[in-house]
Amino acid sequence: KCHFHTCGARPLIWNVRQPMKLVGPSLRREHECEEILRTLPEWFGIEDALLMYARDTGTLPTFALEESSQLVAFLSLREHFSESWEINCIAVTAAHRNKGLGSRMLSHAEEWLSGRGVRYLQVKTLAPSASDPSYEQSRRFYLARGFTPVAVFPKVWSPSNPALLLIKQLGAA
Which has the least CB within 10 A, 13, 44, 51, 59? Predict the structure, then answer.
């Protein structure tokens, strides 16, 4: 039988993690969002685009998940029409991927938009014709969350980056 004071063993200290806190929609933490994007070169390898997405988080409605006061994920939205918005950018730091954080932010954003009378949410991602395994994950993510492919725009970004447009009707049962 060991007693801490007599055998020299150190007491067990539990690593109690604080739950992640959802913050936004007025974020203004562009540097932290840029750091998240830099952990994801498979998706954000074009420097000008990466910097634009980070800058956009300071002006567009942006939600983020914060762990111990540090951002680990964000989602920014762009209004096209009062009833139709777009996911401008969504990113979860590499160390926190595949833990449901993207889904959590997306659900929150959809509720926030629905509460403002928004009926449709759209997103653009790389089209399947580009044969990129990272973007195959992105397409599966959106399809699993109720988005429907609508059209491919071969020159919206560049001929080597054809854009797939997906939409989702919000509040649909």
Answer: 13
